[in-house]
Amino acid sequence: MKRCFDILCSFLGIIICFPLLLFIALWVGCSSKGGIFYRQTRVGKDDKDFTLYKFRSMKINSDKQGLLTIGGKDHRITRAGYFLRKHKLDELPQLFNVLCGNMSFVGPRPEVRKYVSLYTNEQMKVLSVRPGITDPASIAYRNENDLLASVKTNPEEYYIKEIMPKKLALNLQYISKRTFFSDILIIFKTIF
Known about the structure:
Elements: H1 2-31, E1 37-43, E2 49-55, H2 79-86, H3 94-100, E3 104-106, H4 113-116, E4 132-134, H5 136-140, H6 144-149, H7 155-177, H8 180-191
Parallel strand pairs: 3-4
Antiparallel strand pairs: 1-2
């Protein structure tokens, strides 16, 4: 049922959002140098890598300066990128990830291999389900960039030791109790 929901809603979402997707693509392409899409290898279900798609919101090669975005005024973010990130519009291309089956609407947000390699055996259980566009941890930590910006010494260390374990705990709890209706509730909480 969940996969049928994902296929149907991602397909309808792509059709309904097509004018918006086209507008954003033109805006990103015209506002700064670089491609329209940002592609990043993430770890998905069963510990398998896949390519996650987003609208590009940062300057070219910004991920070489670090994988975490710290604060709302990260110098690597483009002008268009600030708006897209603030309203989560940079995530819209993940509808194609959902349609293809790499992702679901609701499931633990996929991480990069660098951070997955730090998971404990218990935390690895988040890879037993398809990753999602949204999850309980995304709602609880919607201000993650601001939290990281407030850390003066080593934001990445703070992410690894403080934020990441708490997000994984929330997602493990979600996995143990998930239902179709709880997924619908998470989608509505994300929207609002």
